[in-house]
Amino acid sequence: MQRLSPQGRKVIGAAGLLAGVGAGCALVWGGYEVPADLLAPTLVLEVAVGWSFVTVGLVAWTRRPDSRTGALMVVLGFAWFARFAVAVAVRPAFVIGVLLSSVYLSVLVHLLATFPGGRVQNRAERVVVTVGYLLSAPLDAVFLLLGAQRGLGEGPPPGGLVIAARSGAFTPSGVDLAVQAVVVALFLSLLAIVFTRWRTAGPAQRRSLTPGVLGGAVIVGTILVERTAILLLIPPSVGVVFAWSAQVVLVVWPVALLLGLLRSQLDRSAVGRLIVELGAGLPVPERLRSVLARTLHDPTLELAYWLPERRAFVDASGVPVAVEANGGRGLTRLERDGEPIAVLVHDPVLSAEPELVAAVAAGAGMAVQNERLHAEVRSQLREVRASRARIVEAADGARRRVERDLHDGAQQRLVTVALALRLARTQLGSASRAEIGALLDEAGAELAGALEELRELARGIYPVLLTDAGLGPALTSLAERSPVPAVVGDVPARRWPDAVERTCYFVVSEALANAAKHAGAGQVVIDVRADGGGLCVQVADDGRGGAEAAGSGLRGLADRVAALGGELSVHSPRGGGTRVIATVPCG
Amino acid sequence: MLIVDDHAPFRSLARRLLVAGGFQVVGEAADGADALRAARELAPDVVLLDVQLPDSDGFAVAERIAGRQGAPIIVLVSSRARLDYGSRVDASRARGFIAKAELGGEALLRVISGPAGAATCSG
Questions:
Q1: What is the ipTM score, two decimals?
Q2: What's the confidence (pLDDT) of residue B33?
Q3: Closest CA relative to residue A333, chosen from A368, A300, A298
Q4: How confident is the model over A463-505, as pLDDT tens digits?
Q5: How far apart are CA A102 and CA A83, in angstroms?
Q6: What is the dotted CATH code of the domain comprising A469-585?
Q7: Cβ contact B17–A426 (<8 Å)
Q8: CATH code: domain of residue B56
Q9: Which terminus of chain A, N or C, has less C-beta within 10 A?
Q10: Is A446:A413 a contact under the CB 8 Å cutoff?
């Protein structure tokens, strides 16, 4: 809805005032007879209802320009006064008055069906609002064409403007009954829509819905009883009481609607309390959330903090959370200097009040920022704990592998040597020299194999060439022993800190092993260059790709690189080879 | 004798050593499944069973062979020492344990002639 200019407000207000005066004049001097005892109360109530809607509608429109409810209330006020055209005893006024006689009811249906936003939001609402409008002016036009008329200036004003018990027997026609049935069905659907909205609303939304919905339900209920009075066998005198009470409720209902619209705004004073409360002590995670939830009247409110480094949201304890506008939840992002710091996940009704949420967010700004830093630290702590656990596990795994390699390799071979020697010993007297020689050869071969395996194992445990000669020769030796042909580019001929050289060496060693074991690669290229103050190592193979960076081998490498403050990235598109890049800072 | 071990050079040397020690070797098996089948078909008197087989654990294989009617005597062997297996050897249904490096006709005879139910060990 457009924001209402002060001038527009004045013009509409003046028009409303005039319309009320005009309606009063029409009733008093229009040419019909109004029973003397009913004139004053009718006049007062009718004008009060119309003015109430116009003035309160204007206030609502001004204070909540985002909602169409204010404008609808103003329209309802004018439609209310427009009925009085029928009280002027001239033909054109009668026609206009009949045509506009029930437009106010259509607007009332529209207003209640779409409260508090004033906009149709689903199919059921659209049907009810449309049927509501079809039942007013278009249907009355049909009745006019069918010949609804009466002697002008005789008796009380037509159209039930003055509420009084009907004199004489009421004999409704079939058409009358059908129309009444549709009206009753319409109002029942309206009540159903309003009740469903109230029932499914969150606490914050209920606060703004309740006053208007309650008043609306009373009005609709009264109209329903009035319309079905005949069917319900309610005596006409009681029906009159209902009609009067509906009128009284109509006078105060706009105020109830306004109260609902402004209810959360009234709560802005709570922002002050929020700041005092947050300032009362160091915020603990749950306290910040609960204070915000209380201030915004939304116990379901959740807070997620943005960690720019990880590009992810985490909760107060640092656990990553998915933040999406799903399940009908509203999202409000809190920013500081253009950078996101947190997001509030809240009742959708609060989305209609960005100013309130912004005020609360501003009030809690320092606390949220503070809590975000806490969450960041907790998140880093979790990551460090997790990586520490993985590093310990990796070390244990490596020891297990060494034990198994020793057992399956060198140990088996040494056992075989021992047995061969024992056999040779037992056969010394009986076997030929050639047979003994063959046994000794067998033992020698097994010993040589055991030695080679022990050397390989020792190199795997720690590459002594790396310490003695540096990264270049160590990587060249690694490439020479690789089962997949590997080429090492120029490695800067200088030394880096031990830990840096070791980490780069093991990155290449693991990547080579992966290229041979998993990638089915035909060629591997190893590239090492000094990168600023650190080292950048890249191992690229031409294998089948699709390596999982979260797989245990690569994860272990990433932990190892991260332990030195470096970063490991893996590019492994399916069918496009694998590229492992490690950047390690030096000190 | 049935020799069960996944390491072919060991099987070959063990066979020659045991034959030299007066035993008759009726077959060899390289894994647990092979061992179960050979033990049934060849009905050996003694099974020399490696603890670490590629497809299963030697203790489990020993349990299954010993559970049969007319089960052979089972002697466990390993390149590890008996200490590495803690009380598992005693708890098993094997007659005894021999460290592979200690294997020979005499050692085997000593284990076989030991009392059933109490594992005799060498190594």
A1: 0.86
A2: 92
A3: A368
A4: 889 989 999 999 999 999 899 999 999 888 888 888 899 999 9
A5: 7
A6: 3.30.565.10
A7: yes
A8: 3.40.50.2300
A9: C
A10: yes
Q: Name the residue among A430, A542, A549 with its Cα closest to residue A487.
A: A542
Query: Among A193, A233, A198, which residue's Cα sits nearest to residue A214?
Result: A198
CB–CB contact B21 A446 (8 Å) = no
Report the number of distinct structural domains present in chain B.
1
Give the distance from residue B89's alpha carbon to the nearest chain A alpha carbon, in angstroms.
19
Disruptive mutation site among A423, A435, A439 for chain B (greatest number of B CBs within 10 Å): A423
Q: What is the pTM of this model?
A: 0.53
- How many residue contacts between A and B have a Cβ separation below 8 Å? 44
A313 φ, ψ (degrees, to nearest 5): -95, 140
**Three-state SS letters, A79-136:** HHHHHHHHHCCCHHHHHHHHHCCCHHHHHHHHHHHHCCCCCCCCHHHHHHHHHHHHCC
Question: Rounded to an integer, what distance in angstroms lies between the CA atom of residue A120 and that of residue A115?
Answer: 9
DSSP, residue by residue, A412-458: HHHHHHHHHHHHHHHTTTTS-HHHHHHHHHHHHHHHHHHHHHHHHHH
Question: Domain coordinates of chain A in residue numbers?
Answer: 6-265, 280-372, 384-459, 469-585
Boundaries of domain holding B89: 2-121
Diameter over CA atoms, chain A: 150
Answer yes or no: do A412 and B21 touch at CB < 8 A.
Answer: no
Q: Which amino acid is at A519?
A: A
Distance from CA of A310 to the nearest CA of B (A): 44
Structure token pair of residue A107: 């607007």
| A340 Cβ contact partners less than 8 Å away, ≥ 6 residues apart | A306, A333, A334
In Å, the largest CA–CA distance within chain B is: 33
Burial of A145 (0-12, 13-18, 19+ CB in 10 A): exposed
pLDDT, tens digit, 9 for 90 and up, residues A245-257 = 778 888 888 888 8
Alpha-carbon torsion angle B54, B60, B66, B69, nearest 10: -90
- Report CA-CA distances (Å) from B59 to A204, A364, B70, B90: 68, 66, 19, 11
Summarised one tens digit per residue, pLDDT across range A217-237 is 888 887 777 777 666 667 767
